[in-house]
């Protein structure tokens, strides 16, 4: 019995010694991880080393809810009007309704705490926002193309460049290597230049070729709104996901404001509304040129 006791006690001592070694090793790894996190700047900390995550605050959450309400009301209004009107603007009502509906999904997910992941710098990154943009921005381009009377081959080419731009922005946001991050940004910026030229030059020239003053004036107004608002998105990206100079709360606030401008304001601008209950008259006036109206309707209706 003494021999058995010695053996059992010996095993117990060996197990205790192994457990102490494992505990020391774990503490050493945690200490190394903390030291590594302290040595690296905040923007260089990979998600696996994050001890805490920079999340949006209360004010940013309020902005997300406000944007969601604005998009929801606009989307419902556009859908109801689309079922009532019988004019040329019917297709624009439907497109606006879809644009706002997709954005509503995105914003509801964001203020509900869904659709995000941790990226470099221990930042909360809402990837659902890029899913939203990958759907809504091509629909915006489609609306502009129809308004300008552009052929669908050119419209789809610009839409393809736009989707590539959004994908490059997402990949740059989740990249772990800074050099790769900025390469994705440059690629997306190059595609944005193509989108910009397509809207500002190709589409506009097509609208001018139709020799319709009402169409030209309306396209100039809504395209300028889109180009200015879209040009600010890369600036926000550089200051937030790119360099980390701004926090995630300010990032969400700025994106919410830009989304409301690029979607809500755009939706009412493109249907040429002076008020929420204006007449159902067609968006274009072709009374002076009936032949041109017939040709346009045969091509696009």
Fraction of residues in β-strands: under 5%
Major sheet details: 2 strands, antiparallel
Structural class: mainly alpha
Number of helices: 9
Q: Can you describe this structure?
A:
With 301 residues, the chain is mainly α. 75% of the residues lie in helices and 2% in strands. It contains 9 helices and 2 strands, in the order αααββαααααα. It has helices at residues 2-39, 58-82, 90-111, 128-148, 152-174, 178-209, 213-242, 248-270, 290-300, and strands at 117-119, 123-125. The chain has a two-stranded antiparallel sheet with strand order 1-2. A hairpin with a 3-residue loop joins strand 1 and strand 2. The protein starts with a helix and ends with a helix.
Features of the shown structure:
301 residues; 75% helix; two-stranded antiparallel sheet; single chain; mainly alpha; disordered C terminus; disordered N terminus
């Amino acid at each position: 019995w003494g021999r058995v006791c010695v053996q059992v006690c010996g095993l117990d001592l060996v197990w205790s010694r192994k457990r102490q070694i494992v505990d020391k090793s774990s503490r050493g790894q945690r200490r190394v991880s903390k030291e590594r996190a302290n040595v690296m700047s905040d923007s260089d900390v990979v998600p696996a080393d994050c001890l805490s995550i920079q999340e949006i605050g209360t004010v940013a959450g309020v902005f997300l809810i406000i944007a969601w309400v604005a998009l929801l009301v606009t989307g419902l209004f556009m859908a109801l009007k689309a079922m009532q009107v019988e004019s040329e603007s019917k297709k624009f009502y439907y497109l606006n309704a879809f644009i706002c509906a997709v954005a509503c999904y995105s914003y509801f997910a964001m203020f509900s705490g869904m659709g995000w992941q941790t990226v470099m710098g221990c930042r909360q990154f809402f990837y659902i926002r890029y899913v939203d943009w990958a759907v809504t921005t091509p629909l915006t381009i489609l609306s502009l193309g129809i308004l300008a009377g552009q052929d669908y081959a050119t419209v789809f080419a610009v839409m393809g460049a736009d989707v590539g731009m959004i994908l490059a922005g997402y990949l740059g946001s989740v990249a772990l290597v800074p050099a790769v991050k900025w390469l994705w940004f440059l690629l997306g910026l190059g595609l944005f230049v193509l989108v910009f030229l397509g809207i500002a030059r190709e589409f506009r020239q097509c609208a001018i070729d139709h020799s319709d003053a009402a169409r030209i004036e309306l396209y100039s107004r809504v395209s300028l709104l889109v180009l200015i608002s879209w040009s600010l998105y890369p600036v926000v990206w550089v200051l937030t996901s790119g360099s980390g100079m701004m926090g995630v709360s300010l990032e969400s606030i700025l994106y919410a404001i830009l989304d409301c401008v690029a979607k809500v304001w755009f939706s009412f601008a493109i249907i040429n509304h002076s008020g929420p209950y204006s007449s159902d008259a067609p968006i274009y006036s072709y009374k002076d040129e009936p032949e041109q109206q017939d040709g346009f309707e045969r091509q696009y209706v």
